Amino acid sequence: MTCHIDYQAPPGLLDGKIVLVSGASAGIGRAAAMSYARHGATVILLGRSISRLEGVYDAIEAMGAPQPAIFPLNLESATPQDYLAVAAKLEKEFGRLDGLLHNASILGDRVTVEDYDLALWARVMQVNFSATLGLTQALLPLLGCSTGASVIFTSSSVGRRGRANWGAYSTSKFATEGLMQILADEHQGSAIRFNSLNPGATRTSMRQSAYPDEDPQRLRTPEEIMPTYLWLMGPDSLGLSGQAFDAQPPKP
Ligand code: NDP
């Protein structure tokens, strides 16, 4: 697994590209949306909190980047009709999609499988995996209209090796890795590439919830891990598909 944290993106890396980011309202998704916009992309901000998405929208406009768009969608209650509606709106406004960052996720509980509430397990699978699957399926035709679309699935270290007390979250990330590999295999030779990206320990509210006793100042910020996000979204990663990447080097 490779990391590109030292990648230096040229300012116009994503000029003219249409990129959708799920969970764009906070944490890593917010940083990615801002970073993609700063590098020239028109970013579709998808998330459940309109007011928080509007904050990102305003920040993007304030830096003079291409005008973004807001697509409100709660992935916990989203249906196949909702995914098709997102695709129809994108088709009407842009006619294609060049990049898709699946970033939205919830943590769920940190208990053993034996103690895990199954209703919560299902909610975690819905937000972290089923919504990812549904959105991808609906957006494949539009991704196929791009000359070189990049689909990035956000993974986790516990999506690559199981760990005690990470139940639903870990399972959802394993499923996501599997989906990425299946899609890459099904689309061999096409212009769409599918890869996974593990951000690694990053200073966000999800990380704080998972590790409440940790000093967040010791962690990289979402902004600091953006080089790999840019590399994987932009043309320097063209031709790579079906691979698992890390946004940060492994801990020494
Ligand atoms: P945050 O909790 O900070 O942000 C999660 C984002 O997902 C928010 O924008 C949130 O929206 C959105 N979201 C959550 N539930 C829904 C929903 N039902 N519908 C729509 N959007 C939703 O998490 P991070 O930034 O830390 O995580 C980003 C990604 O990175 C996740 O996939 C996570 O699993 C992964 N990751 C993070 C690590 C870390 O150390 N931070 C380590 C490994 C992986 P809202 O603002 O409305 O809550």
UniProtKB/TrEMBL annotation:
Family: Belongs to the short-chain dehydrogenases/reductases (SDR) family.
Bias kind Polar residues: ranges: 199-208
Disordered: annotated segments: 199-218
InterPro entries xrefs: NAD(P)-bd_dom_sf (IPR036291), Sc_DH/Rdtase_CS (IPR020904), SDR_fam (IPR002347)
Entry keyword Oxidoreductase: yes
Superkingdom of origin organism: Bacteria
NCBIfam families for the chain: PRK08945.1
Protein name listed in UniProt: YciK family oxidoreductase
Keywords: Oxidoreductase
Entry-linked Pfam families: adh_short
Gene Ontology MF: a single term: oxidoreductase activity
